[in-house]
Amino acid sequence: MSEQECDVEWMKLGEAAFALGVSEITLRRKVKGGKMSHELRDGKYYVLLKKDRETGKYLEGTPENYVSTMSNSGLVLDESRMIVMQREIELREHCIRQLKRTVEDQATLIGFLEQTLSTLSKQHQ
Q1: What's phi and psi for 41, nearest 5 deg?
Q2: What is the DSSP letter of 30?
Q3: pLDDT digits 0-9 by tens, 45-61
């Protein structure tokens, strides 16, 4: 199968399960086990599927699957992996920013509580 004979698309977990002819639970296990390329958007899982234009069948969009089925298309493969990896990096950077904000908020709260405790201790002496 050449790069011109397949499309790659993101599908909601339930739609992807139907397209692949497997249960949603099976796909969820693959996602949780890191065996399938996925994204979490607004609390919903989207999985990467590859569709053969000739047969119309869907395949799981894992990097390993992509490697084994894409012949002579290293550039497309590298670009596809790079897109998936870039998205993962963006999501992780977003999580890191949120965690940093949480830590800053906690530090501010701790400072306020320490100051309050100090004031109360002085009042009761």
Answers
A1: -120, 120
A2: H
A3: 888 888 777 777 877 76
